[in-house]
Amino acid sequence: MVRKKILFVSDTFYPRVDGIVRFMGETYKYLNSDFDIKFLVPKLDGVEKIVRDKKMKVIYSPTFNFTIAEFKPSRPVRKTIRDAVDWADVVFVNTPGGTLGASSVYAAQGKKRLIGYAHTIDWELFPFAIGRKSVARLLKPIFRRIYSNLDIILAPDKMIVDSYKKAGVKSEFKIVPLNADQNRFKENLFDRLIIRKDLGVSGNFVIGFHGRLSKEKNVKLLVDSFKVFRKKRPKSVLLVLGDGPERDKLDGEGIISTGFVSDPEKYLRAMDVYVFLSKTETSALSLMEAISSGVPVVTSDAGLIPTYVNSRTGIVLKKSQLKRELVVRAIDMVYKSPVKSKLKSVGAKLFTDSRNWEDIANDLKRTFED
Which of 132, 250, 274, 359 fits 257 for a cystine, CB–CB 3.0-4.6 Å? Predict the structure, then answer.
């Protein structure tokens, strides 16, 4: 039987490891045996080795020489995009608001089945990333026009769907919730002992974070809060996995910065509390991965986080509470009440475990086959 051809389009790709890239990686892993999948993505330094290791079929788009909020935008080439779209039966755009994503939407419009995933609320995230919130009003009609050209928009939650409908997007919507891969991200006490020993933190209280180290992740507040906390609790360390423009903020005694790691699940098991202070989010996949690993969490209430973390399953700080003294107090609550915090983490894990990745993949499979 001839397999249906699916073109994944994204303005972000390896070696960046953000939520969108992790989502595509998981999707590819589950669906590659059912479909013929190719990726149309920017050619970033270091991407080719990763692609070879993962055995992915990739069509590369060049990038501009400048950066916007540490992000190198794709430079759309009409023939490259047209040839990629002509090959596909379904075009699955993961960044409809990006230069490559939007160009692919217009190239496929009326010719191919067009599906998009609303990973972010673009008119909120982009202005925040460039530090100019005032441009949101100008961007919203542009993004509305692009998203309205999609046949189906997949979204992780009804809240995101409502935001797009309120903005005037007329496409059909389907909710496909996200979660961590429970086969990778799970508790393992043996691994915890080994990695803590390897890191030299066996007797320490480990505060952790992983993900793209960008401005919206509030890395500076995390570091400042840790430094205050460490004065009170000297046997504490801050373990940060990931890379990005804010990595230079990770300086000071007791801070361990690993950079990008291919096996974050091991390091998550070493943590005693996971601190996520992002100012703007949608699903926060990295937070889900920490929860799936059984780590107590202190988190902001950005995006969809309150739909799976509340006062019974973690410590949630409102955006107005993202201040150093309040973050320190929240971390100290976990430090002083490890049993209570662990029980909360069990509750959070029970909820997120209901979102099985195989079910998510099957939802996508049915959508592609329609």
Answer: 250
